């Protein structure tokens, strides 16, 4: 089986997918953090393709950076200064060639994640 990476962002405060949320993917190697790509979620709160497709997959440590503040601003969530959640980084390891699904459940004042399927 080839490995690949996906995500799904749900807005738990509104009860719907988080459309238009910017996500950045980084590869972590010791103290080095290398930007691999930037994507935006579609109407279903997913990216249009795999974040890391099989042909680009490598075992290692990665970081997904979810730009929650920009999303919350775009949907009209009343701003605070500074916003409680702005940028949400999730650092995780992929240790085998498998499907890794890293979803984000988001609200203006909290978030959670897990290894999904």
Can you give a write-up of this model?
It is a single chain. Helix content is 6%, strand content 44%. With 117 residues, it is mostly beta strands. Strands 3-2-9-10 form a four-stranded mixed sheet, with no helix packed on it. Strands 5-4-6-7 form a four-stranded antiparallel sheet. A two-stranded parallel sheet has the order 1-8.
Mean pLDDT score, rounded? 97
The helicity comes to under 10%
Oligomeric grouping of the chains: single chain
Number of strands: 10
For the largest beta-sheet, the strand count, sense and barrel status come to:
4 strands, mixed
* Radius of gyration, taken over Cα atoms and rounded to an integer in Å: 14 Å
How many DSSP H or I helices?
1
Strand content of the residues, in percent? 35-45%
SSE arrangement, N to C:
EEEEEEHEEEE
């Amino acid at each position: 089986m080839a490995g690949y990476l996906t995500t799904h962002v749900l807005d738990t405060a509104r009860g719907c997918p988080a459309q238009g949320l910017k996500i950045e993917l980084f590869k972590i190697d010791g103290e080095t953090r290398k930007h691999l790509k930037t994507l935006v979620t579609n109407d279903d709160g997913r990216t249009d393709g795999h974040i890391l497709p099989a042909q680009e997959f490598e075992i290692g440590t990665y970081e997904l950076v979810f730009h929650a503040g920009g999303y919350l601003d775009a949907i009209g969530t009343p701003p605070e200064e500074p916003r409680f959640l702005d940028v949400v980084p999730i650092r995780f390891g992929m240790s085998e060639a498998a499907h890794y699904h890293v979803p984000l459940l988001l609200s203006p004042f909290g978030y959670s994640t897990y290894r999904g399927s």
